[in-house]
Structure formats: structure tokens, C-alpha cells
Write the C-alpha cells for this entry.
Amino acid sequence: LPAVNFDTTGFPALKNDLYLRTARGEKTERAPVWCMRQAGRYLPEFRAIRVENEFFKVCRDPALATEVTLQPLRRYAGLLDAAIIFSDILVIPQAMGLEVQMVPGKGPHFPDPLRTPSDLSRLGDLGAGFSVDDELGYVYRALTNTRHALGGQVPLLGFVGAPWTLMAYMIEGGGSRTLALAKAWLFAHPTAAHELLARVADVAAQFLIGQVRAGAQALQVFESWAGELSPRDFADFSLPYLALIAKRVKAVFPDVPMTVFAKGAHYALELLATETCFDVISLDWSIDPAAARERVDKAMAAQAVPRSVVLQGNLDPTILLGDEQTIRERTAEMCRSFGPALHIANLGHGMLPSHDPERLRVFLEAVHESSAQLRR
Ligand code: 1CP
């Protein structure tokens, strides 16, 4: 593995700024493309590293995190327009004092999750010695080292989990089908729920600001469990914290593009566009891109100060399990539906461990081809 470099002053010049220009609302020659979970278990080179190294060890070791972040960039040379730092949304609950294990084949497991509101006192974030930058400095070091190792090929993205999604993991103790334990807090203990959400939002905002200082060039907030909430409860328990995070980061770094991915929350498109200052709204595959474009444009046009909102997404990842012809056709269709501008191509959710890496190449090539054609 290459030597580790923590100099945050002399980063290499950026050679491909397609993602950044699009995220800022500029017209570009084609749609930039990257994929959620582009570093992950579908790649044999990733699994080879994981045989020897526990999941959070890869996150905490800057040389390993850099290596894994760069793996898809190397394999799909010239086809990806962004890198996303290898880490996990669960590093925040960990930093706040909860133990998180990554169980092979199962996913995250909290041996001792939050059970009742009195458990909030177990979280360390209000303690006198608590510092987000100290607790999560290993992510900053991974970002700085990766930014150097990228050599300016593409911009580097940082990310966090959104408060509602992290609250869900902290109470459920892992993935869950109904989120009944976490949702019970919303209705039985709304004050405690809001306290937890506000504390996580505070840590998340500080963490994102630190990630930019360390070298992240754009940011994404993952609200993966938004779709479990009704529109009314999304407006109450998710949206205000998403808006707060974006506002706090933008107050320090107004020019760093920010994306929100509220999976399953297409009902909230207008609110995300008008009530938050995210530059990009990432869509899952449950909404037609043209319909999303129209709704967002209509909502923005009614604003006193309209701005352009970029959309990201949204191919159903399981389409990559289909044949090459189908992948090409569906990708072209998706690009046409988003239209000839303000689109960052992506899947509607992350890569799956069962994906064939060569099918992802077909998707990436198809985006290059069909989105360039649209703009001619
Ligand atoms: O053993 C392994 O290697 C575990 C697989 C894995 C990987 C590759 C996990 C466990 N996390 C990650 C990396 C990861 N997670 C990234 C890295 C960068 C990239 O995208 O390439 C990112 C951005 C995440 C974010 C993440 N983690 C989310 C939000 C996005 C989403 O998928 O909705 C969520 C919900 C998690 C929790 C998590 N971590 C890992 C798993 C398997 C899960 C999901 C479990 C569940 O369904 O509850």
C-alpha cells in the first residue's frame, strides 16, 4: 500500500469536474455518473481485502480505506466521475458511544442498542471531553490520504447518515423490516426522539464540516429509512434535521455541493426542494424521473428566489442483473426521462453483493453514450 499523506494544503488539481459543475447547476456535455456502494462486496478485489481485515479496520486504516475507495476507479478507468470515501453511516453511533459490529453476511449489529429514553444518558456526545473531530479523525485522515492518492482524477465525496436513519439503527440494533422499536419512540416518546435526532444532527453537521476541511469536495446525506415514515412524520422527524444539517454546513462552505438521498420519500420532493438548501436530490427507482423533474421545477418556480435543483439517480439496481441489451435500453430511457441537464446518473440504491462487476461497466458506458447523445 502507498505511503499515507495528511497534508490538507497541497491537493492535486482536479482534472474531471463534471460532477461538481453539474451539482452546481451548470449545463454540461454529458451526465456525470457514479454509484452508491461502488466500493463493496460485488468486487473480488474488495472481498480479498476483507478476508484479512475486519470491516471497521478498513474504515479506520487510511491506507486500506484509500485502497478500497480507489478500487472501482481503477477497474472502471475513465468511466466514473466521482469517488466516495470508504466508511459507513454507523461511524456516528459508534462515535457517540454505541458498540457496532459488522456481522459477515448479515450486516450491522448493535449488541446493546438504545431501549428507553433513559438510555440517552449512555451517549457520550454531551460529555465535557467529547470532540467529533477527535472521535472521527480517522475518517478525516482517510479522506485526506484518498484525495492525494486520487491525483485529481475525480472529486472525492464525503457522507453521513441522516438523523432519523441513524436513530433507527441505534434503537433497532440493526436492519429491521418494520422499524417498530424505533417508530414506537416517535409516538410514545416524541420529546426523547427529538432530543436524539437533534443530538445526532449536531454531530453529523460538525462531522461534514470536518470532512470538507480534510478534503471532501462534495457531500451526501443518506436518509435510507425515509420511506418508513408517513409524509406527516417525515415532515416532523426527518425534514427539519436534514434542513438543519444542510444549513449548518452551507454557512461554513456555501460552495460545496450537498446531496440528500431520502429513500422512499418521493412524496416529499417538493419539501426537500423548497425547505432545504441541498443542491441535489437523489431519487430511488420508485418515481419516474420526468415526473420528479416536473414536480421539482414547478415547486421551485413558485419560490420567491428560484434556484436550479439537480436530480440524481435512479436506475433500479436489480436491472444490472438483466442482460446487457436491457441494461443499455433502460439506462438510455432513464437518461432521456431526466432530460438533457441537471442530472447526475446513479442507481436508485447501492450495488448488491450479487452484482457482476462487468454489468456495472455496461451501465457506466451506457450513461456516457446516451447522455452525451441527448445533449447534441
Ligand atoms: O462486510 C462488508 O464489507 C459489509 C458491506 C458494507 C460496505 C461495503 C457495509 C456494511 N458498508 C459498506 C460501505 C458503505 N456504506 C459506504 C461506502 C462507500 C460506497 O458507497 O462505496 C457507504 C456510503 C455506506 C452507507 C450506508 N451504510 C448506508 C446508506 C446507504 C444505503 O445503502 O442505504 C446504510 C443504510 C449503511 C448501513 C450498512 N452498512 C453495511 C450494511 C450491509 C448496511 C445496510 C444494512 C441494512 O440493510 O440494514
Remarks:
- The first strand starts at residue 83 and ends at 84.
- The chain has a mean pLDDT of 97.
- The chain has one domain: 18-374.
